[in-house]
Write the structure tokens for this entry.
Amino acid sequence: MVTTEKPDYKVVGTRPIRHDGVDKVIGRAEYGADIRLPGMLPGAVLRSPHAHARILGIDTSRAEAHPGVRAVVTSADFPSRQGEEGEVGRADNVLAHDKVLYVGHAVAAVAAVDLHTAEDALDLIDVQYEVLPHVMDVRDAMLDGAPILDEKLRTANPDGSQGDTPTNVAQHIRYEKGDVEAGFAAADLVIEREYGTTMAHQGYIEPHNSTAYWSKDDEVTIWTSTQGLFAVRDAVAGMLGLPVKSVKVEPVEIGGGFGGKIPDYLSAPAALLSRKTGKPVQLTMSRKDVLEATGPTSGTHLRVKIGAKRDGTFTAMQAWMAYEAGGYPGSPMGAGTMCVFAPYDCENQLIDGYDVILNKPKTAAYRAPGAPASEYGAECVIDELAEALDRDPLELRMQNSATEGTQRADGFTYGPIGHEECLQAAQDSPHYQSELSGANRGRGVASGFWFNIGFETSMAAQVQADGTVPLVMGAVDIGGSRASAAMQLAEALGIAAEDVKPHIVDTDSVGFTFLTGGSRTAFANGWAAYECAMDIRRQLEERAATIWDCAGEDVSYGDDGVIRGPNDEDGAAQEFSFKELAAELPNTGGGIVGRADVSKTSHGPAFATHIVDVEVDPETGKVEILRYTAIQDAGTAIHPSYVEGQMQGGASQGIGMALNEEYIWDEKGRMVNSSLLDYRMPTALDLPMIDTIIVEVPNPGHPYGVRGVGEVPIVPPAPALHAAIYDAIGERMRMLPMSPTRILERTLPDDD
Amino acid sequence: MSDKIIVSATINDEPTDMLVSQRDSLLEALRAAAGALGVKEGCNDGNCGACSVMLDGRLVNSCLVMAAEVEGSEITTVEGIADADHLHPLQQAFLEEAALQCGICTPGFLVAAKALLDENPDPSEHEIRYWLAGNLCRCTGYDKIVRAVQQAAAGTT
Ligand code: FES
Ligand code: FES
């Protein structure tokens, strides 16, 4: 680890075994699909075979008459469709209303005595479609005369105006800073390139699932693998037309999300089926459903142009980016435009982004949403500039790096950030210092940026008489956040992490908590845990003052967990350890609960720099990764093992996106590779060990300096691999994934 | 229902009768009829390894085995790896090495890794990666999983 300077923490920075670990290694942890309720019925979802069609009619009577079928629902069963515009639950996406907009779009759902019966019944639902022309390429969808998905859609323009003709372009965003024309005129060298990326899926191993029970008094309970218990509650209440208090979402373990389990697809149909049957209903997706009908990240088309002086100074940066939103507006274009040049300090910038609907699944957030595509374009151009200027690529980045005080094109000005520290750590790393030799081998580097976010978190911690502390929270734990919250509470109370027991509870049992995503959880949970601890400390000081019969201000709670009071009558020091005072609580006024409701905006941005060595097989086009090092500013690493794990996992998803993963469509708009054999994510055999260097430039906006770590490591792999492949074989691969097929197109001699 | 049959097998050392439909997979039977919910479904077509179990000493994807085929078999799932008092060294190593994030792949990895160590107690890194290539993990990048298997093999947990 590269650490600037850090207080002497006792718990923060250690590596305790996570509190929820044992349940997960013995098979006892309860994930969404493991929910079993008395009388529960399984169900299945009918999906569109067409990429674009109008629904003329749905006849469910044959399915309803099928033995074993208990209920069938369609969009007509929604009591309201208020949730229509929401990102979490869009009624039209959950059950298509008048049109289907992509292959896999849900049309109806069936509950039956067993899953096979429910699946059989899907074939008995008669849907009459009028098939419409479809559009699958983002540039085609932007053309005049393209098939229009939504006649009512008008472009929201950067100046706040609205377009006046039907279009597939939902939004155009522009960020401008300085004068790019003047900046390019002042440059000695200008490089402009086009890039493309394809849809890629989050690829969580657990398919989506939801179990719902609609009771006779119109109270709905939901168990679902989601990144946001409260987000699902609010979206489902909206779609079902119920008051929020009538929907309760229970916590279950979640088998990966990466942004893709923010939207909810199954809870509302399961609830509608439950209302019709009077039984709990469980819906689970197949892997094919997951790939075809849940949010991948956008494919994109990008143009990036950067000008530089002969001495390497960037004089102007410009980007034009079109993002596929899928069937409904809402690609991560907005974040992509803010991220594209975020690691750099340049006076003159112009960034245009377009959110474009087309006949593909509605995209969802995917780890640093929007950033891997846009920053890939920018970093690849920077690699070309470094080559043309004969400069070390890390050094050129260092020369132009954003630092404290740099203002991005979107107007945000950085506080203390760690991009330069990451670049320096990369420069000094054993990996970068090593020699790489051999035919078809190459090395590449790239940087990445992600915002991280804050938002609402609620927690409560109760001090037990034996000095242990259950901690209740509302943020789903997707990969170690119970442990990091418990550790930060323990640090603030001066007790052991093992004495805290973190619990995630249902939406009625804790205050509103925003979803687990945006790299916010360690940051926001940490703030809430810290505030809970401060609340407990205040109350324990008061209690000690009562016991010692002294003034409150004469008692102080030390960071070592010792509560000190004034000397007693004999002049002897009076103090309690945390456990001693906890033992006094029952007889001195009862237990103590510390509470916190925080909503912080003091999150700190994350930067990362990755180094990769590859060998390209010219016969097969396969890229083998020989060595990989991920460097990242974590602010403060609460549990370094889980920080490393995020860096390694993010890097491996970025590697998959860079080298293999893509959606392949036939001419009818059907995904032809919707299995985990053909949608090829990295296996253990595809990757080497992923070395990590954690840089710690503490975030001044957090009690322990946390920035958030989850997302940024997915950003640098694609451009770093682009540079490494170029170094190995002299080909600039400007379309992701840089798959064997695409590499062979370059390396094989032309036959004709 | 008429198409149901009873399949008797020994699951984690317990003789168990499972009432299954003829078209149920072993994965469905283990989860629904035997209550072995530690066996996970990630793909239902043999491509993720989340449903890995030992069937008569052989590592299989339970989603690719018909339940009706396992009459009289010995099956071990993740629930059967630890003994009453202790975690298996692999389970301990997974905890110490932080080899899980979301944990959905963990049961399959543990069963597969145990099968490897039973056969080859001292595997190289390459052998571990080769053996575990049938188990997908999307969270960890495999680094810490491979290290956990190495640690368990070295007997240092
Ligand atoms: S569920 Fe059996 S291999 Fe994926
Ligand atoms: S820990 Fe989440 S898939 Fe492996």
